[in-house]
Amino acid sequence: MSDIFLVKLENVHQRYSRDGKMATVLNDIDLKVRPKELVTLVGPSGCGKSTLLRLILGWEQPKSGTVQIDGVDARSPNRDRGIVFQKYSLFPHLTVLENVIFGLELEQIPFIWKWIWYPGYRRRRKSWVNEAKNFLERMRLAEHANKYPHELSGGMQQRVAIAQALIMKPKIILMDEPFGALDPGTREDMQIFLLELWEQYDMTIFFVTHDLEEALFLGTRIIVLSPYYTDDDGKVGGAKIVMDRKLPGPAATRVKYSPEFNQLLEEVKKRGFEESYRQHISEFDLSHPDSWRTAKMD
Prior knowledge:
Elements (H helix, E strand, L loop, with lengths): L6 E12 L2 E13 L4 E5 L6 H9 L6 E6 L2 E2 L7 E5 L10 H12 L1 H7 L3 H20 L15 H13 L5 E5 L7 H18 L2 E5 L3 H7 L2 E6 L2 E2 L9 E7 L12 H15 L5 E2 L18
Parallel strand pairs: 3-8, 3-9, 6-7, 7-8, 10-12
Antiparallel strand pairs: 1-2, 1-4, 4-5, 9-11
Helix pairs in contact: 2-4, 2-5
């Protein structure tokens, strides 16, 4: 296999100050991800899933270790990485269309007053509007372009948020519980919709969810973060990657009811979520072909 990795984390530790003491959230994270993977991230609440997204985005810097995108340190956010939150992050005073092109306009703020009275700016904005309309058409939202967010359902608002991220043409889309606030029927529709977009745009996606069925159904690869493990020194602190496994890839919804699916679901629960199951670090399931560790496992 080719050794072309879009994202690489090496020996990453992240710590925060809590009550005057330093608390480790992520402990020795090593991860390599190729372009066009759909990586789902699961783990107990507070184990650092969102922290990991922020490190990849460049909103935070690790206390130690490196986070690289295309071989370059992720020092700050840029248009190569888009993010979609559970709370749709739409501007209530802007229409759907205006929300979608907001990022493109924001990128031009240093120049906008120079261009605004010239035909060049108007042509440029017209191209953004046409592109946004194309996205909305593909997302079955064209007829809602002039509505405001409060006039849309939750699923529609999330589609707008995804369009808002996609129009920037990022290499990586980071999704933090994007469907968590949706009802079950809308959620399943959005899962199918996301897979259509993933295939259409060849995106690399990091998808955080608390729904294990969703993680196993969507992903080509699952990462389980957990603080429930042991090592030889007894100095356990912070979450590690306790499972990094290749998945068959997105399939029909009926796969959710297969014995193999349910067996894997129970294994993820046991390895990642059962506090009483303290696997030794040498017993982690790091069976994905690209899984690696800089630290010794014994």
